[in-house]
Design goal:
The structure holds 2 protein chains of 2 kinds.
Chain A: E1 2-7, H1 17-28, H2 33-53, E2 57-63, E3 67-75, H3 82-86, H4 95-99, H5 107-114, E4 117-123, E5 127-135
Helix pairs in contact in A: 1-2, 2-5
Chain B: E1 10-12, H1 22-26, E2 32-35, E3 38-41, H2 51-55, E4 61-63, E5 76-81, H3 83-87, H4 95-104, E6 109-112, H5 117-130, E7 137-138, H6 143-152, H7 166-180, E8 188-194, H8 197-204, E9 216-219, H9 220-232, H10 249-253, E10 268-272, H11 274-285, E11 294-298, H12 314-324, H13 342-346, H14 366-382, H15 396-404, H16 414-423, H17 428-439
Parallel strand pairs in B: 5-6, 5-8, 7-11, 8-9, 10-11
Antiparallel strand pairs in B: 1-4, 2-3
Helix pairs in contact in B: 4-9, 14-15
The chains are: A alpha+beta, B alpha/beta.
Chain lengths: 139, 449
């Protein structure tokens, strides 16, 4: 099943709505609560990244019984050095964004820690696609 | 993992219910539907918060309590009375008068529930400090909140502090104190004077404990009326003054909003009223809010002062309790009162883990759940999204899920009915019958009494 959520750039008031919406779906699908937590934490970080750094984007969530795949796609400045961006504490966030409690440079790390697979593709001046996969245990 | 059944103290009287749907519309967990002109409860979704009880215009929703006469089956009859009970009475009525009136109504002993708070407060502080991995820690004080977390925020069950609430500790204490005086435990009846439905439910089916130390539950309004009547008849002033040991500052305010949070070091938040709590827990669950140490969460507005079984206005009750609070905190000596049983109680303060009991799932099996979700989204696309509730479900989304779960049919939607009448798929008679099936036949003109 596929679900799509639009994410508006610069609107911190609504940052988290996509993750909350998808969380509700995962609960209805009886995904294990602890796995939902990992998925939602990862997705929320990605969502906030789009709000804070891009010119807007969307989250495309795909669920089957084996895994959850989330693609966070944005149009924006892109990430020049993905390896550097992955390092804990690295942040390009402006002072304004940091003041709001975002941009501590832990975002991508946090996604990595909570997901099974993390792929980042980015083109400077074009945009970024963060792909998150969380596997679901097979009964 | 999930326990199947909950005891519910909230009951709907089919006889009195007029099927008005007020309760359905206020239920924070969407646990109520209207069928055949009566409200029905999905028991596994109900958290006993009492919102429906407050909303019911005809008092068809009641809180099931023990028969007051039951106290007489015990030789030693303990009333476990919460501080908010005293906050209901006008200022000119003394604590001693209220004690006298409670005793005159058949109890032999009175223990104030918050007696154990000072012991507990220290344990909570230590617990918060020693469990940084489960932050933010959620207080186990309010039983409606524990149930809410179990059914709606299952991922947060690990955050609940596994310590008994004051009620259970004080129940242990009073039993111990009496049995140590040589009294046969079988002759002791411990009756809790409850301000809300959730406490009753927690006693009748304890979460995280094997059994409850409490024999029975008396609704606070029942005892309030008995006590107030006694005092109004001016009988209490003729009794000798009873020396009442005041609660400590901490204990006196523990059940009010901020009562716990004020004492927990670090970042502690106090949130009352169930919708506020839900809003906040949504954010906690997404990890949107980090770095909070402790959450005091209460289902009622103004916490226990706003309990549905209180007779006085919640703001006045809270104000009185604050006013009755001693200016300085006098801690009792180690050899006094509950402190004599400190070690005994500390050893028994833990509760077992609290399991998730998600009510959100459409099916146990994920594939089946996905099929149902598909069906639900298809249905939702046909619905008007007015959330009018005429179908007997609280909103269009809940109705779509009810259809997917086989508990409703799309023809119950009044907008669908109009469309189908227009196209001739449904006759006016069939349409009327459908509505009667939801709202009962006595609501329609031809059947009006």
């Amino acid at each position: 099943m596929r679900f799509e959520y639009q994410i508006e750039a610069g609107n911190f008031t609504n940052a988290g709505d996509a993750s909350s919406g998808f969380k509700k779906i995962l609960k209805q699908l009886n995904v294990d609560p602890q796995i939902i937590k990992r998925i939602v934490v990862s997705m929320y970080e990605g969502e906030v990244n789009i709000v804070a750094h891009s010119n807007g984007g969307k989250a495309i969530c795909d669920v089957d019984t084996s895994r959850v795949l989330i693609q966070l796609v944005d149009i924006g400045p892109g990430i020049p050095d993905i390896e550097k961006a992955m390092q804990a504490g690295f942040s390009t966030a402006s002072a304004k964004v940091r003041e709001m409690g975002f941009g501590a440079g832990m975002g991508l790390q946090n996604i990595k820690n909570n997901s099974d697979i993390l792929n980042i593709q980015s083109e400077v001046g074009v945009g970024t696609c963060v792909e998150i996969i969380v596997n679901l245990p097979q009964s | 993992m999930d326990s199947k059944h909950f005891h519910h103290a909230l009951k709907i009287s089919e006889e009195i219910c007029i099927g008005c749907s007020h309760c359905m519309n206020v239920c924070p967990t969407e646990a109520i539907r209207v069928r055949n002109g009566k409200a029905i409860l999905y028991e596994n979704r109900c958290v006993d918060c009492g919102e429906c009880f407050k909303a019911c215009p005809v008092r068809a929703i009641f809180i099931d309590q023990d028969d007051f006469k039951r106290i007489q089956s015990f030789n030693y009859r303990i009333a476990l009375v919460p501080a908010v009970f005293f906050g209901q009475f006008p200022e000119e009525i003394s604590h001693s008068q209220i004690y006298n009136a409670i005793l005159a109504n058949g109890f032999t002993h009175i223990y104030e529930v918050e007696t154990s708070v000072d012991l507990l407060a220290n344990e909570v502080k230590a617990y918060v400090k020693s469990h940084p991995e489960s932050k933010p820690l959620i207080s186990s004080f309010c039983p409606a909140i524990i149930r809410l977390v179990q059914v709606k925020f299952p991922a947060l069950t690990d955050n609940i502090i596994l310590l008994k609430p004051p009620l259970d500790i004080t129940a242990l204490y009073c039993r111990k104190e009496l049995t140590d005086q040589g009294i046969n435990p079988a002759e002791i009846g411990v009756f809790y004077i409850t301000p809300c439905a959730a406490k009753i439910a927690a006693i009748k089916s304890p979460v995280g404990e094997d059994y409850s130390m409490i024999t029975g539950v008396i609704n606070m309004d029942t005892l309030y009326n008995k006590v107030y009547k006694y005092i109004r008849n001016d009988r209490s002033t003729r009794q000798p003054e009873i020396p009442v040991r005041p609660l400590s500052r901490t204990a006196q305010q523990w059940t009010l909003t901020h009562g716990e949070a004020n004492h927990i070091p670090g970042r502690s938040l106090a949130i009352d009223e169930i919708h506020n709590v839900i809003e906040f827990l949504e954010k906690i669950e997404n990890d949107e809010i980090g770095d909070i140490d402790f959450l005091e969460l209460r289902a009622c507005d103004e916490s226990c002062a706003g309990g549905v079984l209180l007779s006085a206005n919640r703001f006045l009750v809270a104000e009185r309790l604050r006013r009755y609070t001693p200016a300085t905190d006098t801690t009792a000596a180690p050899e006094e009162g509950i402190n004599r049983y400190k070690d005994y109680l500390l050893k028994r303060m833990k509760i077992h883990s609290i399991n998730p009991r998600s009510m959100m799932k459409l099916d146990e099996n994920m594939e089946e759940a996905m099929r149902k979700m598909d069906k639900s989204s298809q249905m939702l696309r046909c619905l008007p999204l007015t959330d009018c509730g005429a179908c007997g479900s609280p909103n269009c989304q809940a109705f779509a899920n009810d259809i997917a779960l086989g508990e409703a049919e799309i023809r119950q939607c009044i907008f669908i009915q109009k469309n189908r009448e227009q196209t001739g798929e449904l006759s006016p008679d069939e349409s009327l019958e459908l509505l009667k099936g939801i709202w009962g036949s006595d609501k329609f003109f031809s059947n009006r009494k």
